[in-house]
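Long-time lurker, first post. I've been practising inverse folding by hand and with some scripts of my own, and I keep getting stuck on stretches where the C-alpha cells seem ambiguous. Below is the full C-alpha cell string for one chain I'm working on. Before anyone asks, I'm not after the true native sequence, just a reasonable design that respects the backbone. If someone could post their per-position residues I'd love to compare against what I wrote down in my notebook.
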C-alpha cells in the first residue's frame, strides 16, 4: 500500500520539475550534454559533501547561535536550474545566483535567519551571502544550493551529477539523442 505522503510527493515532484529526461554522469561530463542533438536545455546538479557554518538568529543578538551542518551541497547552473524547477516564487532571482551566494533550506531557517555563512568544500573555505530560501517540499530536495562558479573545478570533475534535460520541440522522448552521442561511457 502506498502512503498518502508518497503519492503527494510524487505528484509534487511531477508538478515542480520541467524536464523530460534525467542523465546521471560524472560532473565533468555535464557540459557535453547541452551539445547533444535534440537537447534544448541541460540543467546539471552536482552533489558534493560539504560543511556549512553559520550564525542563526538576529544578527548581532546575544541569542544568535553558531550552527554547523555537515551534509550535501548542490552546485547548479542557476539559469538552467530556474528553468527546470518550478518551486521558486522568484525564478528570476534564482537564475541570477552568483558565486559567493547560497540558497538554504527553509527547514534550516525555521529558528531564525542564517547569516555570516561559511562553506567548507573540498578543503576550501568560502564566505557566502544568503540569497534565498528553498521551500519545504514533500519530495526530497536540495538543502543548500550554490552556483557551480562557487565550487572548484577539481571538486566538480568526479562528483556524481544529475542533469535534467528539456528536449527541443518535436523531439520524441524515445529517441532524443543522435547515435554519435551514445558512445560507450559518454551518457550513463
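-- Answer (accepted) --
I ran through it position by position. Result:
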Amino acid at each position: 500500500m502506498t502512503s498518502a505522503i508518497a503519492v503527494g510527493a510524487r505528484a509534487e515532484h511531477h508538478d515542480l520539475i520541467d524536464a523530460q529526461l534525467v542523465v546521471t554522469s560524472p560532473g565533468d561530463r555535464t557540459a557535453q550534454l547541452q551539445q547533444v542533438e535534440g537537447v534544448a536545455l541541460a540543467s546539471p546538479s552536482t552533489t558534493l559533501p560539504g560543511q556549512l557554518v553559520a550564525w542563526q538568529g538576529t544578527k548581532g543578538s546575544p541569542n544568535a547561535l553558531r550552527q554547523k551542518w555537515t551534509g550535501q551541497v548542490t552546485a547548479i547552473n542557476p539559469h538552467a536550474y530556474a528553468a527546470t524547477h518550478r518551486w521558486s516564487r522568484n525564478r528570476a532571482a534564482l537564475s541570477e545566483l552568483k558565486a559567493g551566494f547560497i540558497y538554504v533550506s527553509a527547514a534550516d531557517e525555521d529558528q531564525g535567519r542564517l547569516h555570516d555563512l561559511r562553506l567548507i568544500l573540498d578543503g576550501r573555505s568560502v564566505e557566502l551571502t544568503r540569497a534565498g530560501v528553498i521551500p519545504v517540499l514533500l519530495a526530497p530536495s536540495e538543502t543548500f544550493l550554490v552556483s557551480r562558479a562557487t565550487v572548484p573545478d577539481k571538486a566538480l570533475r568526479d562528483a556524481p551529477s544529475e542533469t535534467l534535460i528539456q528536449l527541443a520541440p518535436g523531439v520524441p522522448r524515445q529517441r532524443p539523442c543522435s547515435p554519435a552521442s551514445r558512445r560507450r561511457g559518454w551518457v550513463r
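A couple of notes from the structure itself: The helical segments are 4-16, 30-33, 78-84, 91-95, 153-157. The longest strand covers residues 39-56. Happy to go over any region you disagree with.
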